[in-house]
Amino acid sequence: MTPRARTWLCAAGALGVAVLLVTAFLRMPEFGGTLHAYRDLALPAAIARATPNLVSSVNFDLRALDTLGEETIVAAAVVGTLSLLQPSPEERQRIEPQRGYVLPVVKLAGYLMLPVTLLLGIDVVVHGHLTPGGGFQGGVVLATGWHLLYISGSYPALARLRPIDWCEYAEAAATGLYVVAGLTGLVAGGAFLANVLPKGEFGSLLSAGTVPVLSILVGIEVAAGLVVLLAQFLGQGLIREEKS
């Protein structure tokens, strides 16, 4: 395809997107008005399913299929990174330990915050249907907490304690189980990802049906995927350049 043809094709696509955006903006409710169709539908649905966190109700119940797509994007990013940044055997031999001086107070803060951050991440994932948070946010917190070892100047310790293989398995398993949960809803509830588990008591930990289950699966997938991603980037950054 010639550059001129690519330009016209890009312009046609941009024009189509612009028309869709303008049409959507013109049909939006007036700012400050009383018409909030999505709110009027989402809030009763969350209450009916005993999900105090309205955002998690939308993500893992009302539009759980969209969340599956977002989860798949993370998995695709990990696969792409592994394909592009996987060190060759020669590069692995040139990976050198992290160098540079790290203040003792930074090391101490990193070591102290590591267990606190991991516990916080688990809490955000598990209680995502009750309080602000959920699988995506908690997964990022978990992955970040794990890499406090690197910030503390201990890349060898991070490399020893970082279960890359298990993270790859966990990411794939969590993504697959999300699909299994969707098929279970299809069989038991007549719709893919239907909320078919008992709703429980409003505000209790064991409530909201499949919402906490899907949140935990997404938390595992996001945490494991980010650990694998950062491992590849850090590995590339520590490869010693060959001198010509």
From TrEMBL:
Segments traversing the membrane: 6-26, 101-122, 134-151, 172-193, 213-234
GO cellular component, as recorded: plasma membrane
Keyword Translocase attached: no
Compartments reported by the entry: Cell membrane
Keywords in alphabetical order: Cell membrane, Membrane, Transmembrane, Transmembrane helix
Pfam families, per database record: MnhB
Occurrences of domain Na+/H+ antiporter MnhB subunit-related protein (ranges): 106-227
The family this protein is said to belong to: Belongs to the CPA3 antiporters (TC 2.A.63) subunit B family.
Protein name: Na+/H+ antiporter MnhB subunit-related protein domain-containing protein
